[in-house]
Amino acid sequence: MREHEVRTHRSDENLPREQQLAWRIAEVAAERVPVTDAVTDMVINRVIDNAAVAVASLRRAPVEAARGQAQRHPFTPGATVFGVLDRVSPEWAAWANGVAVRELDYHDTFLAADYSHPGDNIPAVLAVAQHTGRSGEDLLHGIVTGYEIQIDLVRAISLHKHKIDHVAHLGPSAAAGIGTLLGLDRETIFHAVGQALHTTTATRQSRKGEISTWKAYAPAFAGKMAIEAVDRAMRGQTSPTPIYEGEDGFIAWLLDGPAGRYSVPLPEAGEPRRAILDSYTKEHSAEYQAQAWIDLARRLGAARPDLRDPANVRSVVLHTSHHTHYVIGSGANDPQKYDPTASRETLDHSIPYIFTVALQDGEWHHERSYAPQRAARPDTVALWRSVTTAEDPEWTRRYHSTDPAEKAFGGRVEIELADGSRVVDEIAVADAHPLGARPFERADYVRKFRTLAEGVVPDAEVERFLAAAERLPSLSADELGALTVDIGLPPVTRGGIF
């Protein structure tokens, strides 16, 4: 990897294009490098993972609305949409599928200087591949680039610090992935990356306070904008330049300003793109920083059933990282995180709620655990309101560590009981994490798909999809349409302008 130094530049400095971050991203995307076997296997895993969480959300309102919008834009050849046989214009397929993948907050993650769900690249790259008649091998290369660029940006540039939504790294990465897929030149990808960043920057209010259904739409919007940006760039249209470094650009006004300095790691020429191997998926349908806490809570509840009764518990303090405390913990100062009538999206970002339910139930379920009647249970509400978080400098340091062996997303729980005794335990990473108690392998991804597809997707369709996904690198252009699931959903006809 080579570190690319990034800072703002005055206009009169006339920063050469070849020194701009968008150009370096384009250089990586324009080079077709062989994909290792380990990376190929992980791409297949994540295509299965995305499909698993998408099929489980097909009848949820945000997904139905997005699918209904997409179905108003039929196109030939077009791209597939989860749940139906229709083919639609690729940007609208990316929109509908992106919402389906993101709705349950249940697919892969990478956390470093910022947050990301790099699997959000897949809907946009796949839609363009299907529409343009590309092969499975082309798709593989495009997805690998999308993961590489997003993860490399997330390693170096914090958006959350400035309250910018994390999808600002997704627009450029999806544009780069599409550029690799299509074999575009550096100049075209450069302008596509710049336009994608410019059009996908927004505040992170979508993840604050009363969290709305837009949370699922935000990455889908970034993927849709990336496709449109590539289309314009291919037609010769240019982007604001320098998009990152300009004196009125992204860094100058939305991030650290003229004093800001970043060092972005990007692959050298010819270097294999391995970033996807540093990402990790979710065993549980919840914010990633909650994954390890769910596993710890389940373990504690099984060993000490008395902890499930609020009458026995005086207080529960989760000592954890800065991000966990301030984003999904009591440090966010969001009263909604303790509200039994809060939306599913809000409860998904409340570690006090999640820890409580996992402790009491000994499980975490993508539907049952969020049900309104479950959140309103009196004993749960009583225990829930005794749970707070506190930032611990050591857990913050480990959260940001670049050493995979010590990087951690959990923390230490201290429970004070009514009789004056205490229970203390800790967990560093989720059980499903590569360094966890039960790291996810192909069989786990397949089981996750089968579990979430049960009662939704016919068995024959489950087997057909899995067989296609596991052959992804060798699929012909005609076979790429198999990377979807059709369950014959009726057209969505209600509401809207389209």
UniProtKB/TrEMBL annotation:
<dbReference type="GO" id="GO:0047547">
    <property type="term" value="F:2-methylcitrate dehydratase activity"/>
</dbReference>
<dbReference type="InterPro" id="IPR042183">
    <property type="entry name" value="MmgE/PrpD_sf_1"/>
</dbReference>
<feature type="domain" description="MmgE/PrpD C-terminal">
    <location>
        <begin position="284"/>
        <end position="471"/>
    </location>
</feature>
<feature type="domain" description="MmgE/PrpD N-terminal">
    <location>
        <begin position="19"/>
        <end position="258"/>
    </location>
</feature>
<keyword id="KW-0456">Lyase</keyword>
<dbReference type="Pfam" id="PF19305">
    <property type="entry name" value="MmgE_PrpD_C"/>
</dbReference>
<dbReference type="InterPro" id="IPR045336">
    <property type="entry name" value="MmgE_PrpD_N"/>
</dbReference>
<dbReference type="InterPro" id="IPR045337">
    <property type="entry name" value="MmgE_PrpD_C"/>
</dbReference>
<dbReference type="InterPro" id="IPR042188">
    <property type="entry name" value="MmgE/PrpD_sf_2"/>
</dbReference>
<dbReference type="InterPro" id="IPR005656">
    <property type="entry name" value="MmgE_PrpD"/>
</dbReference>
<dbReference type="InterPro" id="IPR036148">
    <property type="entry name" value="MmgE/PrpD_sf"/>
</dbReference>
<protein>
    <recommendedName>
        <fullName>2-methylcitrate dehydratase</fullName>
        <ecNumber>4.2.1.79</ecNumber>
    </recommendedName>
</protein>
<dbReference type="Pfam" id="PF03972">
    <property type="entry name" value="MmgE_PrpD_N"/>
</dbReference>
<comment type="similarity">
    <text>Belongs to the PrpD family.</text>
</comment>
<comment type="subunit">
    <text>Monomer.</text>
</comment>
